[in-house]
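[Discussion] Sanity-checking designs against the backbone

I'm trying to build intuition for which residues belong where. Below is a structure token string of 213 positions. I'd appreciate it if someone posts a full sequence so I can compare it with mine line by line.
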């Protein structure tokens, strides 16, 4: 690792900390991309095709795998808790729970964008970020408003094209296995009566990624 990269990583770790996130460098080879991850988005997630950071707009696992192979170093970001909801249970969560997590989603994705942008303007021109969750920069995404065929051309109508990045999971990145590479053990959160979204507790850990060079 060059001295310039080492200094930049330390700078970005400090910047992430100022945003309330933990950050750890990791090797590009430690980013796990698996085909099964995308199936979890296609089958079972209510956000499928409704947000530009989600499938089918997000890159496929094959595209992600090929892209990640061009990087040697990245920065994994960890976000603990849910802003605005220090503690909650399943009965506090509305049926349409996307906006319940708005502050969390904004926190994760604006931090990823800031880290990416900072690295880029510091001379690491390959910097690229992956966020988490369905995007919520708009109350309702253009993709959700449009009826008919779903295809890539809708992205040109995105209101925040400069900010939106694909989520890690939407791109086929195994977040659990990748986080484990830096010593972060993640676990699924039980839901009341196995009901989708009715999580038992708010001890949620969220993960983002910024690739550097």
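Best answer:
Here's mine. Compare freely.
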């Amino acid at each position: 690792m060059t001295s310039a990269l080492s200094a930049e990583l330390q700078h970005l770790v400090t910047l992430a900390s100022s945003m309330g996130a933990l950050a750890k460098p990791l090797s590009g080879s430690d980013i796990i991309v698996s085909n099964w991850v995308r199936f979890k988005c296609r089958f079972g997630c209510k956000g499928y095709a409704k947000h530009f950071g989600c499938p089918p707009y997000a890159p496929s696992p094959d595209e992600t795998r090929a892209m990640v192979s061009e990087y040697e170093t990245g920065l994994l970001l960890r976000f603990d808790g849910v802003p605005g909801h220090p503690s909650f249970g399943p009965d506090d969560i509305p049926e349409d729970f996307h906006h319940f997590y708005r502050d969390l989603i904004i926190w994760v994705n604006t931090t990823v964008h800031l880290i990416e942008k900072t690295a880029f303007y510091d001379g690491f021109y390959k910097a690229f970020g992956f966020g988490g969750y369905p995007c919520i920069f708009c109350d309702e995404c253009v993709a959700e408003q449009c009826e008919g065929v779903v295809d890539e051309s809708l992205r040109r109508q995105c209101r925040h094209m400069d900010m939106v990045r694909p989520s890690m999971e939407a791109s086929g990145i195994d977040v659990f296995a990748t986080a484990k590479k830096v010593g972060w053990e993640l676990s699924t959160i039980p839901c009341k009566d196995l009901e989708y979204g009715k999580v038992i507790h708010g001890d949620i850990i969220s993960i983002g990624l910024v690739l550097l060079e």
